[in-house]
Specification:
By secondary structure, this protein is an alpha+beta fold. The chain is 18% helix and 28% strand. The radius of gyration is 33 Å and the shape is elongated.
């Protein structure tokens, strides 16, 4: 056709050598570097959010929740063999929940600001201490009273307890009257309602019951290591407003679980202790 440019294409002759140019495609990592970076950033921020904002980390000190929590702890002040827990506030707490409680209104010690215990009775429940016969004395002024707990009339089965037998401990005067210096109002009410005077050095023979019905905002909390725990048996039920949250994750001492959730997110500044 007129005015049509002709293109001459040279076709290699049969048997001639043709130089081949090899073009390498970028690797998967090179092609998706930005995407991978974004995914990593989202995952890292999500990790931080869950384990620092949504959940609150806390290390446990002491033996009050053994054997379930802090099984490796050797004393009430051991901060080395500590378990890590994560807790979060919930709308409703129920029996057997393990909770962290602001203890300012319940314990006189300035060194303890929070405690960890198990809910054994919730609002509306009636908890009864059935005091049993048995030797009560450790010393002339220190009484140990064996007891059994009933919840709404039925014996409370507690398979998680560290001890086979549980006791209440209280100080009394030489006359056998409750010593007000302890200021444990619940224990005092229990003691005075069942036995006003226990002769020094005697065996406790007058068994009796003391019952308490929880108000709509009250919870009765106790440590699993019952004979080594200061809890509602002494200072009484706690208010819902003082419950900081329910334990959601428990990392026992020596367990990995991302190395204690990366040592509770990198820094000791985030570490809080609870007894």
């Amino acid at each position: 056709m007129e005015n049509q440019e002709q293109t001459n294409i040279e076709v290699p002759a049969p048997g001639s050598e043709v130089e081949m140019i090899k073009v390498e495609s970028p690797s998967f990592f090179e092609r998706h570097f930005i995407h991978l970076l974004v995914v990593f950033a989202i995952g890292f921020l999500s990790f931080i959010f869950v384990f620092e904002i949504y959940l609150t980390p806390m290390y446990i000190v002491g033996k009050s929740m053994q054997p379930g929590i802090n099984a490796a702890a050797t004393s009430a002040t051991d901060k080395t063999h500590t378990d890590l827990i994560y807790y979060r506030p919930v709308n409703n707490y129920t029996n057997n929940d393990i909770v962290v409680v602001n203890s300012v209104n319940y314990l006189a010690s300035d060194e303890v600001s929070s405690i960890i215990k198990r809910v054994i009775a919730k609002p509306g429940d009636t908890i009864t201490f059935d005091l049993e016969e048995g030797t009560t004395y450790h010393s002339a002024t220190y009484i140990r009273i064996p007891y059994e707990i009933k919840l709404n009339g039925s014996t409370l089965t507690e398979s998680y307890l560290n001890e086979e037998n549980c006791y209440l401990y209280c100080s009394v005067t030489l006359a056998g009257e409750y010593d007000d210096s302890e200021d444990y109002t619940f224990l005092k009410a229990l003691y005075n309602s069942v036995k006003k005077v226990i002769p020094v050095g005697s065996t406790y023979t007058n068994a009796g019951e003391y019952s308490y019905t929880l108000a709509e905002d009250e919870y009765f909390i106790c440590g699993d290591n019952r004979n080594n725990s200061t809890d509602s048996r002494y200072f009484g039920p706690v208010k819902k407003q003082d419950i900081m949250g329910k334990v959601k994750i428990h990392v026992p001492y020596g367990s990995n679980l991302f190395v204690g959730i990366w040592k509770s997110i990198f820094s000791a500044k985030n570490i809080m202790y609870c007894e």
